[in-house]
Amino acid sequence: MSKNLPRLIPTGTCWCGCGAETAIGSFFARGHDKTAEAAFLAIHHDASVAQMLHAHGYGPDDDKSVTKAAVDKGLWQECPRGCGYRGARESINNHVNRHHRDK
Ligand SMILES: [Zn+2]
Ligand SMILES: [Zn+2]
Q: What is the distance in A from the centroid of ligand 2 to the CA of 92?
């Protein structure tokens, strides 16, 4: 998916640092990816997703939209019904089923 990133291999120990064993092929014990994400945000971005986005050049304007950038990079898709919703392909499928079922 993303280019220029190293290939990471799950080690069997939770990557949040709690020391728990993980299932084969998993980086994290269940839910601990969120723990690690929250700790990272607290350290680097004052626990604020808005700060994180701003630090990477994203913002509320359309030309700085992080979701639009994801679509432009071909990682995410836009709702085929044109409602403006953006998401990963599975999210789009769920969204269409839930919100555009009768149309
Ligand atoms: Zn953990
Ligand atoms: Zn839609």
A: 8
